[in-house]
Amino acid sequence: MSKQFKDFSITSSQDPDEVSNFTNLSNYWWDDKGPFRLLHEINPVRIKYIIDSCSSHFNKDLANDNAFKNLKLFDVGTGGGLIAEPLSRVGFKVTGIDPSDKNVTIAKNHSKIKKLDINYIQGSPEDRKFDGLYFDVILALEVAEHVSNVELFVKSLCNKLNPGGIIIFSTINKTIKSLFLAKFSAEYILSWVPKGTHDWNKFLKPSELSREIRNNKLDIVSIKGLKFSTKSPAWHLSKDVSMNYFLAATKQG
């Protein structure tokens, strides 16, 4: 078992180097040709997976414009709000948090321009400021591979999920394939993401993430891969989880 699962001396899930890295890039969140271009490209697939998962879990009719009204959503590692904004538009009551003050400022300013009511707060899910807050939907998209303590991170999220709620992760599998494609190729050959964005040692196998979630008494309901098709070319959901994958889990209630 890796150190990130065993080191109980760590009381924060934040990795200062990771926070600094994303803070330095914060001005580019809404530049779809900049360092976050890949997130803009996969956003339609991420949003579809979230909406489909939530509509199925909560038995919501997507033909209803207010299908998700009054459902409280926690977007953890919100960055500039790339996920928070479209989900706010479809009715979720969104709270977005990020460990970077500058990211939160960028997200707040952009949501004001778009006239969206999103509650953005600086911090990490284990912070005491979030004690007593509970949500129907919790998202941690492309975040788990950047934290310093996965066990604490997952536990903090699961504790904030309402009974009957759903939590959705997306992250990168720890495989030889991901080492070559998600790390070296994506950063140094294709320049899909800035160099140094990822540390392969912090990637998570679905079995590892599933174990942490089950340890917190949640049930895994879906694991789907995210794959790039050169034929389209576009990103789409897949049975192949050897690279990026989504994982959804629910809390009984």
CATH class: Alpha Beta
CATH fold-type name? Rossmann fold
The CATH homologous superfamily is called Vaccinia Virus protein VP39
- What is the average of the pLDDT values? 91
Order of helices and strands: HHHEHEHEEHEHHEEE
* Count of DSSP strands: 8
Domain tally: 1
**Structural class label:** alpha/beta
Spatial shape:
globular
Question: How is the main sheet built?
Answer: 8 strands, mixed
Uncertain spans: 1-9
For the record, give the distance between the C-alpha atoms at the N and C termini, rounded to a whole number.
31 Å
- Computed CA radius of gyration, to the nearest angstrom: 17 Å
Helix % is 25-40%
**Shape-level CATH architecture:** 3-Layer(aba) Sandwich
Q: Give, in spatial order, the strands making up the sheet with the most strands.
A: 3-2-1-4-5-8-6-7
Number of separate helices: 8
**Percent of residues in beta strands?**
15-25%
Description:
The protein has helices at 3-6, 16-24, 37-57, 84-89, 101-113, 150-159, 176-189, 206-215; strands at 72-76, 93-98, 119-122, 135-141, 161-172, 219-229, 234-238, 244-250. The protein has 253 residues and is of the alpha/beta class. The chain has a single domain (3-26, 33-250), classed as Rossmann fold (3-Layer(aba) Sandwich). The chain has an eight-stranded mixed β-sheet with strand order 3-2-1-4-5-8-6-7. A hairpin with a 4-residue loop joins β6 and β7 (234-238). α6 (150-159) crosses α8. The two termini are 31 Å apart.
